[in-house]
Amino acid sequence: MQVDKNKKKIAIFPGSFDPLHAGHINIIHRAAKMFDLLYVVVSYNISKKEEKPLMVRFHKVQATIDQLKLKNVKVLHNEKLTITLAQKLKCQYIIRSIRNEQDLKYEMNIAQIHHMLDRSIETILLVADSKLKQVSSTNVKEIAKQIKWLDNKQYETNRRPR
Questions:
Q1: What is the Cα–Cα distance from 60 to 97, expressed in whole angstroms?
Q2: Residue 90 has pLDDT above 50, yes or no
């Protein structure tokens, strides 16, 4: 197999990003160094219940990427299969991240499905930074709910007549 050294290395990093967090941003920084062009794609995940609508998540991710000033990173949104968009964008790679054994099993299954659908697109699994291993969208949402609950309790306490 001959490798075309002039061919751009293009990757897609799909996710629900509900919400985008430090773990995602770490993966985006690392992947951006590896590829000529990285598409961060805000999409649906049928396994998750998203709290924010797709376009709200898209605009938040776009604003964050703009602040990071990563010249080779573009943000898109997608309502179709990831592999279909990867083909359309001429991506050779799909970036996924793993924090633990549970993530690994899930991502291996998804990678195998992608490979069955298109053998020319490789999945690359990036291991989460050890300092960010416990960060997940689920944990971030749970902490936000707890803070909101505490804020409401504080407000109620302060409103009580003395």
A1: 20
A2: yes
